[in-house]
Specification:
Elements lengths: L10 H9 L7 E7 L5 H9 L6 E6 L11 H8 L7 E5 L4 H4 L4 H8 L3 E3 L5 H5 L5 H9 L8 H24 L8 H7 L10 H22 L7 H11 L12 H31 L3 H14 L3 H6 L8 H60 L1
Parallel strand pairs: 1-2, 1-3, 3-4
């Protein structure tokens, strides 16, 4: 048993703390997250489910150490101590698609008190293709559409889909060293992307991926009959050829794909807006003032992307919501049981006290009558 107090804190500890709070106070659930960057995302989700009876407080695994809390630390160290008063909110990474093939994956999919993203990470939600045009508008204040992000990301996903399925199969069969995650990310990079002719970069990527798939088919002939049922299983989990980018490593998709698209798109939109200001200005002073005002109002693209919340229509986000709804039901059931037990205990104590008082009164009366008779 650990000697450190923090290592012995569990859901029961916070449950006991909830019992000591006034009845009008909310049942507080402590939600552990992996890093500072995750706090707002999970607050935005959990805030929707707060009621007059249930509230959440989001914290990092350690309040005394500035190191970011890794998912392995949360699931392995806190997993068995989680409950209706202490939960963990983590990125799914590949563990959701692993479906119990690793100990961490078993924790992720079987522990109802671990809420995960279902997609690889929060960054994948922030790169949700249908919302990327709005991010450009936030950054440039120009609503003109110059690029079809959704069509591009779907085309990109279809190209990398087969090699990604191979990666999942290798991870499930303990052969991840044959195609490590960093190798997969390098393989699916886009080189010399031109937003005016994106098909050229996609065609080069298709050639690279097809060559790697052919290599895998040659070196792993036993996988031939296993990939088709795996694809069907993954589709039931939410993965399909058009949304593969949601299940790839989040930082890779954000930094190497989406930002590579958004930087030139936003540059075009900003220049168009500035050109419009120059054309419409009546004199040089007005032009300078309007340009300064516009440039001051624009925002960094990466910051707007990280503040993007346009992913709430994504089916995978709805999976997260459904998970939280089930958690709320567990909390409500536990709270009701606790209330019933408390009421029963209070009733039993009251009954015992009444019985004791009645017995004492009867004894006193009997004693008094005996004294009177003797007198």
């Amino acid at each position: 048993m650990s000697r450190r107090l923090i290592d012995n804190v569990n859901s029961t500890y916070f449950e006991a703390a909830n019992h000591m709070r006034p009845k009008w106070k909310k049942h507080k659930v402590i939600a552990y997250v992996e890093s500072y960057d995750d706090i707002y995302f999970w607050r935005d989700i959990l805030d929707e489910f707060e009621t007059t009876d249930i509230g959440f407080e989001i914290v990092l695994p350690s309040r005394t150490n500035l190191n970011r809390g890794k998912k392995s630390a949360i699931t392995n160290n806190l997993g068995n101590r989680l409950g209706t008063s202490m939960i963990a909110c983590v990125d799914a990474d590949l563990d959701y698609l692993m479906q119990g093939s690793t100990p961490t994956s078993k924790q992720i999919i079987n522990n109802p008190y671990i809420i995960h993203t279902y997609v690889y990470a929060i960054e994948n939600f922030q790169c949700y293709a249908p919302s990327l045009h709005n991010v450009c508008v936030m950054a440039t204040l120009n609503d003109h559409k110059v690029f079809d992000f959704q069509a591009f990301m779907e085309a990109y996903s279809r190209i990398i889909y087969d090699i990604f399925v191979w990666s999942v199969w290798l991870y499930r069969t303990n052969q991840a060293h044959e195609l490590p995650l960093n190798t997969l990310c390098n393989l699916t990079n886009l080189h010399k992307l031109n937003i005016h002719n994106p098909e050229e970069a996609l065609e080069k990527l298709r050639h690279t991926v097809n060559r790697k798939v052919a290599y895998m088919q040659q070196h792993f002939p036993t996988a031939k009959g296993k990939l088709k049922p795996l694809k069907a299983e993954l589709q039931n989990l939410g993965l399909n050829p058009e949304n593969t980018y949601l299940y790839m490593q989040g930082h890779h998709i954000m930094d190497n794909i989406v930002m590579e698209l958004m930087n030139p798109v936003c540059t075009i939109l900003r220049r168009a807006r500035e050109r419009e200001i120059r054309q419409n200005a009546l004199h040089a002073q007005q032009q300078d003032n309007e340009l300064a005002s516009y440039q001051h109002s624009c925002a960094p693209i990466d910051q707007m992307l990280r503040r993007n919340s346009g992913y709430k229509t994504a089916p995978q986000y709805q999976q997260v919501r459904q998970h939280v709804q089930k958690l709320i039901q567990l909390i409500q059931q536990a709270t009701q049981q606790t209330t019933q037990q408390t009421t029963q205990q209070a009733t039993q104590q009251a009954t015992q006290q009444t019985t004791q008082q009645t017995t004492q009164q009867a004894t006193q009366q009997t004693t008094q009558q005996a004294k009177d008779n003797n007198t």
